[in-house]
From TrEMBL:
UniProt feature coiled coil, ranges: none
InterPro entries, per the entry: Smr_dom, Smr_dom_sf
Pfam families per UniProt: Smr (PF01713)
Residue stretches of biased makeup (Pro residues): 55-64
Domain named Smr: residues: 127-207
Membrane-spanning ranges: none
Disordered: annotated segments: 47-70
Protein name per UniProt: DNA mismatch repair protein Smr/MutS2
Length: 210
């Protein structure tokens, strides 16, 4: 065995490791072994952890531009101690209709009108409202006229008195509005004062019941 070299991995005389040279058949065998060997896929590198970015703070409102006061009016925030209004602060009131005293109404013939304004048409029933408050006076007036119409009376008289105010008392001022109500106006043909100097009473010509 003196002619053979050192075994694979052996060392020479000087202690230096020598590389063993493969024979031809050994080289062919090695090539066949490593033919189907593929290198292992390298693991994808994990991305470095990124610190969470805090949400951006809301921008502070810019100073109000005086030119924007009309286009962008400020919003009023009600205070807790302010009363809440569930309905409008005002109520629309329709104007009351009043009957015209001393004016001839439609459907009245000349003879009846002249007799009424001259005072020759005497009242068949009289209602005196002296000393009554407005509520009681209206209730009595309403019942008086409805009953007079039901009794087919032609002319009645209502006395309110002059009153102490510049424009007369409450009853005198309210009577034209009471007579102009939708439930009483259809009963009446005309209303006049019995005399120009007597503004504290009126004579009412009623429509005849059909």
């Amino acid at each position: 065995m003196g002619g053979m070299g050192p075994p694979a991995g052996g060392r020479g005389e000087c202690g230096v490791r020598r590389r063993r040279v493969l024979e031809q058949d050994e080289q062919a065998l090695w090539t066949a072994i490593v033919r189907d060997i593929r290198p292992l896929a390298r693991k994808a590198a994990r991305p470095a952890a990124v610190d969470a970015v805090p949400p951006a703070a809301p921008l502070a409102p810019s100073p109000a531009d005086p030119r924007d006061r009309v286009a962008r009016p400020a919003t009023m925030v009600p205070r807790a101690d302010m009363p809440r209004l569930d309905r409008p602060a005002f109520t629309l009131v329709r104007p009351r209709a009043e009957i015209a005293i001393g004016e001839r109404g439609p459907g009245l013939d000349d003879t009846s009108w002249r007799t009424l304004v001259s005072g020759k048409l005497r009242p068949l029933r009289t209602l005196d409202l002296h000393g009554q408050n407005a509520h009681a006076a209206f209730q009595r007036l309403h019942g008086f006229l409805v009953q007079a119409r039901a009794d087919n009376l032609r002319c009645v008289e209502v006395i309110t008195g002059l009153g102490s105010g510049r424009d007369g008392g409450v009853l005198r001022r309210e009577l034209p509005f009471w007579l102009g109500r939708p439930d009483l106006r259809p009963l009446i043909l005309a209303v006049v004062h019995p005399h120009a100097a007597n503004q504290g009473s009126v004579r009412i010509l009623l429509r005849r019941a059909r």
